[in-house]
Amino acid sequence: MRQALIDEKGWKDEELPCEKTIGNILNRLGYRLRRVEKARPVKKVRETDAILENVQRENEAADEREDSLRISIDTKDKVKVGDLSGGGQSRGREATKANDHDMKYEEKLVPFGILDVLAGLLTIIFGTSSETSDFIVDCLQQWWDANRDRYSHIRQLVINVDNGPNNSSCRTQFLKRMVEFADRNKWIPHLLHYGPRRPTKQPMFVVLLLLSIP
């Protein structure tokens, strides 16, 4: 605020109070530092209970099959790579040196997680592209190519996906790529679409994709 008064309003440095005083004035006026509020989740819809029951039924049926594999996929917050402090700490005789600003980073990685739900096996693939529908399906294909032998007995793949903007049940590019993914591996896709999220702490998946090998 103080610098803006100098740059934009033409005030001189000696004419203004210090930054702390300006901060106290703003606080008295009600302009306090406040946390950014997340948007409220979509309220529960009429079909939510029926949808969740159907999802649970399909998941349980898949888990009971010896030739079925259920995985959960999700993309996490991007990770900046470089000499960044990130508010971290390290134990040593001298402090670890970092850049003066965390904005100076070498690249930004996108972590994509694939969890074998029953076995508890987690695979994380890091990419340098944006989080797109193509990126998501490319990661799935890379994971499957690397684990094809491990799951050679599998005839059905169940994928739990959230309702992110790039993998929602309405994203045509995501659905197109998933069909191509199924065709490449000689699977027949069956889609079950979930409703909106509801305001609870329960995990809420929005798309359940059943890929059955004929």
Structure description:
- Helices cover 29% and strands 21% of the residues.
- It is of the alpha+beta class.
- It folds into two domains: 1-34, no CATH class; 48-212, no CATH class.
- Strands 1, 2, 3, 4, 5, 6 and 7 form a seven-stranded mixed β-sheet that branches.
- 15% of the residues are buried.
- The model is unreliable at 198-204 (pLDDT under 50).
Uncertain stretches of 5 or more adjacent residues: 198-204
Number of strands: 7
Order of helices and strands: HHHEEEEHEHEE
Span between N and C termini?
65 Å
Largest sheet: 7 strands, mixed
Instruction: Name the average pLDDT.
Output: 79
Q: How many helical stretches?
A: 5
Helix content: 25-40%
Please tell me how large the radius of gyration is. Answer: 24 Å
What structural category characterises the helix and strand content?
alpha+beta
Q: Shape from CA axes?
A: elongated
Q: Kindly estimate the percentage of residues that lie in beta strands according to DSSP.
A: 15-25%
Quickly count the domains: 2
